[in-house]
Design brief:
The chain has three helices and four strands, in the order βαβαββα. By secondary structure, the protein is α+β, with helices and mostly antiparallel strands. The chain has a single domain, classed as Glutaredoxin. Strands 2-1-3-4 form a four-stranded mixed sheet, covered by helices on one side. β3 and β4 form a beta hairpin. The longest helix has 17 residues. It is globular and about 35 Å long. The protein starts with 20 loop residues before the first strand and ends in an 11-residue tail after the last helix. About 10% of the residues have low confidence.
Length: 114
């Protein structure tokens, strides 16, 4: 079983007050797709939600019961829990425009993130 590199399994926020964006990224170990999804969501959070996002990376290999409890059918899956409504994006998050739309963030011009 692969293990996610430690630099990818950190929380993005250590603040005790509630934050506007609550994101959960469900991955399956250190697969190429999972690593890309982690890097892509970190880039988006760093650029568009600095200090304004609680991002947790959940490895379903280590916590398989969460897949059923959270109705995760495929991985990687990004779940935006807050602000509502809850939305999901499945895949490696390389389509930055789709991720930004799902998060309710303003779209940038072509080639700005890629």
């Amino acid at each position: 079983m692969n293990k996610i590199p430690s630099k990818y399994s950190k929380q993005s926020s250590r603040r005790s007050t509630p934050l506007p964006y609550l994101l959960r990224l469900y991955v399956t170990g250190a697969t190429h797709c999972s690593i890309r999804a982690i890097a892509n969501i970190h880039a988006i959070c760093d650029k568009y939600l600095p200090q304004n996002c609680d991002l947790k990376i959940i490895d379903l290999y280590h916590q398989p019961s969460l897949a059923r409890a959270q109705h995760i059918l495929a991985a990687p899956t990004l779940v935006k829990e807050r602000p509502g409504p809850q939305t999901r994006v499945i895949g490696d998050l390389s389509d930055s425009h789709r991720v930004l739309r799902t998060l309710g963030l303003p779209l940038e011009t072509e080639n700005s993130l890629n």
